[in-house]
Amino acid sequence: MKLSHHVTARRASLGILAAGAFLALPAFAQEATQEAAEAAPQFASAADTAFIFNTLLFLIGGFLVMWMAAGFAMLEAGMVRSKNVSMQLLKNISLYSIAGLMFWLVGYSLMYVDVNGYFGTLWPYSWPAAGTANEGDYSVASDWFFQMVFVATAASIVSGTLAERIKLWPFLIFVVVLTGFMYPITGSWKWGGGWLDGMGFQDFAGSTIVHSVGGWAALAGALLLGARKGKYGTGGEVQPIPGSNMALATLGTFILWLGWFGFNGASQLALGSNADASDISRIFANTNLAAAGGVVAALILTQLLYKKVDITFVLNGALAGLVSITAEPLTPGPFAAILIGAVGGVIVVLTVPLLDRFRIDDVVGAIPVHLLAGIWGTLVVPLTNADASFGAQIVGILAYGIFTFAVALAVWAILRATVGLRVSDEEEMNGLDVAEVGVEAYPEFIASRVR
């Protein structure tokens, strides 16, 4: 009886609990749904996604262009004699670091902040505090980093041309002026929204703004510095001075070629849409085709002219093709990209002897590659880009050339009159590794001191 009562009571209790549970299901389901929603990952908005991808583009493009500093170092190390290799390596790591500091101290603000048409403001640049999300379409620091590595490229161009006879510290002082003031001021004319931008001048990634600026500065220095001892005879004959290591020069060229995808591709400045991704892919393809066109053109032309292929011309043909397409890597079709790069390769082969005729000693061929191919690439933009005009392109080329050459010539002249530019004849003969650096790249090659 008691047992039967307990069983009945238990069954009744279970029934009540079951009924209560059933009645409570909607409430439990609502709470579970709310908890699941809170635990679920928060998906970024379209604006956040664009911000992330734009910033990532700047960062990836920036470290690819930074890697070009290694390319310039290897190229120059291979193109100079073994007794000057350490000097070139030292100059390249120094100029990259100086460029970074100067572009933070004054350069970025001069180029982008409150530009009045001709230059910006004169103060160190800063970025939002850590964790700040509302910075516009991309992270401010990523933009600064991407723009900074470009200015280092311009300085590297000067380093190669003036190799084997310039003193270290006058060169580095010039780098301070170039990266802190000259390049940012001229860059503001187009990329900072200045007067050339208003005129319609087009230079997508810097055939003129970066490469020709570096080339003009190098030309001014070469004219005041003079040629290396033994390069030109008294009767006007040219004495070839071979580089020390074509393997390093080739490695440097491939590194530069790789870095150029960041140089041109990230200059799209956006990766927040399907259209942007498609454009960047097209830029990559055109960049590669132009470089290949420059190589093949130099390969064939040197065979025809000299009956043998000169690897230094072929390496520079690749670089000239890359420089040529940099002014407009998006709008050309594949054949046009190849042709633009091929003309760059032809320019190198034909103008290196022309420089020798004028006794302008350019150790690595940077003036034909960066200055002349840069002019070509900028001038040809209207053939593929309907937004460009030959008039605006010519005005831009002249403006950058006149300003940069005149200011560079004045700075080099001041340095020559004060601290001097050139090492002594004895120091040049022994090599700058001994005279200026104190650490020889190849110390076992004793004979290199008297070459």
What's this entry about, in short?
The protein is an all-alpha fold and 451 residues long. It has 15 helices and no strands.
Write a structural description:
The chain is mostly helical and 451 residues long. It has a single domain (46-450), classed as Ammonium transporter AmtB like domains (Ammonium transporter fold, Orthogonal Bundle). Helix content is 70%, strand content 0%. It contains 15 helices and no strands. The protein has helices at 2-39, 46-79, 85-112, 140-161, 168-190, 195-199, 207-225, 246-265, 274-306, 311-326, 334-357, 366-379, 390-418, 425-430, 432-437. Helix 7 packs parallel to helix 13. The longest helix is centred in the first third of the chain and has 38 residues, at 2-39.
* Helical/strand content category: mainly alpha
How far from one another are the termini? 121 Å
**CATH C-level:** Mainly Alpha
Instruction: Give the total of beta strands.
Output: 0
Radius of gyration (CA) equals 30 Å
User: Might you state the CATH topology name?
Assistant: Ammonium transporter fold
Oligomer: single chain
Amount of helix: over 70%
CATH hierarchy: architecture: Orthogonal Bundle
Work out the helix count. Answer: 15
Count of distinct structural domains: 1
Order of helices and strands: HHHHHHHHHHHHHHH
- Integer average pLDDT: 90
The main sheet comes to: none
Low-confidence stretches: 1-29
Task: Note the main attributes of this structure.
single chain, 451 residues, mainly alpha, Ammonium transporter fold, globular
